[in-house]
Amino acid sequence: MISNNREDDHIEHISGLLIDAFERIHRERMAGLPILHPGLSVAVVGAREWQGDWLGVLITPWCMNLVLVPRRGSVHTLGPTGTKQSIELPAGRYELLASAADGVGPFAACSLFSPMNDFADQASAVAAAKAVIAGLFEPKPCPSDEDRPGSNRRPGVSRRDLLRGKLRRGR
């Protein structure tokens, strides 16, 4: 898809770099490992610009991660591989670990699911990733909204809820 929008081009470019890098990791370093889900492939879901950086969900046959790829001069300064990085999203604060991949460079990731055995197929993994990214951009309710009788506002998605599978069970 050709876009005249530089932001869209950047998002698509970074998505492509991540897909290429993790497909290469799949072929070269993960091939044959029992942790792999044979019905899943590498994909990026919900990629968008967030505070000038790239943010999206990366699906692989072995894990699903929230990934932040900072631009040069980003407010999200990543330390050495393995160091923690916190980011503030509308649903709350999330902790990611600094990493790097050939062809992508430095990025930070928050593990959402690993291994991927609970997903029946690629479509179910993509649906979960879409729910995750939507939940992360749903603002936290004000305390007064939560206490108000009949309030329809739902709180954002916590990492704990994600890991407990609340998205798959419909909260």
Structural overview:
There is one protein chain. The protein has 171 residues and is of the alpha+beta class. The protein has a single domain (6-169), classed as [NiFe]-hydrogenase assembly chaperone, HybE (Yope Regulator, Chain: A, 2-Layer Sandwich), CATH 3.30.1460.40. It contains five helices and six strands. It has helices at 6-30, 122-136, 143-147, 159-163, 166-169, and strands spanning 43-50, 53-59, 64-69, 84-89, 92-101, 105-113. Strands 1-2-3-6-5-4 form a six-stranded antiparallel β-sheet, sandwiched between helices. The radius of gyration is 17 Å and the shape is globular. The N and C termini lie far apart (36 Å). Residues 148-155 have low confidence and may be disordered.
Oligomeric composition of the shown chains: single chain
CATH level 4 superfamily: [NiFe]-hydrogenase assembly chaperone, HybE
Which range does the strand content fall in?
25-35%
Spell out the helices and strands N to C.
HEEEEEEHHHH
Mean pLDDT: 84
What's the CATH topology name?
Yope Regulator, Chain: A
Name the descriptors:
Yope Regulator, Chain: A, alpha+beta, 171 residues, 27% strand, 32% helix, single chain, six-stranded antiparallel beta sheet, 6 strands
